[in-house]
Write a sequence for this structure.
């Protein structure tokens, strides 16, 4: 017999589907949350079952279970841990650990892609285009490569996963992988996925107006409370507010925080580690410790959300050498304009002794320090008229 303990997200369940394809009725599968795995592992170890081959995929165990698993393996237990999170790299010290973040071609792995390689290499699964395509969709979704490649099929597969139950998803996908040469969605799935895409868009639009800026340690965080669509939300808000180092998504019901960044020079796995969590450099998470609660909830709850930049302007545009006008939540106006090769700043018609090498640097400074937003054309014209009057006095 085989036992597979895996994550309860798309990548984790992808591992379960591959295990079903390889082992059929011979495998017993449990899907777990990040916090739920250790209980399952200690329960398994308590059984002293030496005839079952244990796979752990897409998740890693705590120190205590790490020791117990090592002991189980030493005394003849069969065991394989497969993961792609860099916070799990230390499991490579064990014969039973296989943690690889990047493949040989410099592409990021997912647990499903690693398990697929493993099963094919050990002649437990016959490779087939439809399975390879399925594995690649999951890999691209899990690593966010789908976005760079505009691979919306990968995103849709994840949406479908959350629209139906895990059992239904597994059943449908098993059938599809067994009966077809290539991977495709049905017409009905395409229709409901279109509805779902629209729903996500509306949700993000609403959450964009609730984002709170807060400096935590050396980083500027964007904090938002949300129960759903964490990946999409983290990514869209990150792109809307590039002056923020990362987006922290608070799920109060689940008592968890997810961290997402779009910046290469910010590693959110380090942020999550501070609160006992982990993950990737661009996406990580932790449970809500009391310190995390204090910094992300208590300290932010009374703050005003960020205002959105005006989107329909014809005159007050970003990067205009003559000036782009912002307002702070204290009601002050900031004009960012170019003079020779520098960008200078004026506060309520008075020039400040600050200069920036680029427009983006200047904007980042005023957004971080004064919580400013680009104001509408009408307000821009008012400000210019005011300046004109002042100059006549
Ligand atoms: Mn994964």
């Amino acid at each position: 017999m085989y036992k597979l303990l895996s994550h309860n997200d798309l990548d984790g369940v992808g591992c379960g589907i591959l295990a079903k394809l390889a082992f059929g009725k011979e495998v017993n599968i449990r899907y777990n949350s990040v916090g739920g795995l250790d209980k399952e592992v200690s329960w398994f170890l308590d059984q002293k079952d030496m005839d079952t081959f244990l796979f752990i995929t897409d998740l890693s165990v705590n120190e205590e279970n790490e020791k117990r698993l090592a002991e189980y393996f030493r005394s003849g237990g069969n065991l394989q841990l497969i993961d792609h999170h860099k916070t799990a790299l230390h499991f490579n010290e064990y014969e039973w650990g296989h943690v690889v973040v990047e493949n040989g071609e410099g592409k990021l792995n997912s647990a499903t892609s690693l398990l697929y390689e493993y099963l094919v290499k050990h002649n437990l699964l016959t490779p087939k285009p439809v399975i390879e395509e399925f594995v690649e969709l999951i890999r691209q979704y899990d690593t966010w490569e789908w976005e760079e490649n505009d691979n919306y099929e990968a995103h849709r597969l994840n949406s479908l996963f959350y629209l139906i139950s895990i059992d239904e998803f597994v059943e449908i996908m098993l059938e599809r992988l067994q009966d077809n040469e290539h991977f495709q969605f049905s017409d009905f799935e395409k229709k409901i996925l279109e509805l779902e895409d629209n729903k996500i868009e509306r949700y993000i639009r609403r959450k964009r107006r609730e984002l709170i800026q807060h400096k935590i340690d050396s980083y500027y965080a964007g904090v938002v409370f949300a129960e759903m669509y964490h990946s999409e939300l983290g990514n869209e808000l990150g792109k809307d507010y590039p002056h923020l180092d990362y987006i922290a998504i608070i799920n109060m019901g689940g008592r968890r925080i997810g961290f997402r960044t779009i910046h290469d020079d910010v590693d959110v796995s380090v942020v999550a580690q501070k609160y006992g969590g982990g993950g990737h450099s661009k996406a990580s998470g932790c449970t809500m410790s009391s310190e995390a609660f204090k910094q992300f909830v208590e300290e932010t709850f009374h703050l005003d959300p960020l205002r959105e930049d005006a989107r329909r302007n014809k005159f007050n545009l970003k990067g205009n050498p003559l000036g782009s006008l912002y307002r702070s939540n204290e009601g002050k106006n900031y004009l960012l304009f170019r003079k020779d090769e520098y960008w200078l700043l004026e506060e309520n018609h008075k020039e400040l002794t600050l200069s920036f090498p680029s427009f983006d640097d200047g904007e980042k400074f005023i957004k971080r320090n004064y919580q400013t937003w680009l104001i509408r054309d009408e307000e821009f014209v008012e400000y210019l008229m005011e300046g004109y009057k002042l100059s006549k006095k």
Notes: The pocket of manganese (II) ion is lined by residues 11, 58, 84, 110-111, 142 (CB under 6 Å). The chain has three domains: 2-185, 210-298, 324-392. The longest strand covers residues 219-225. Residues 324-392 form one domain.
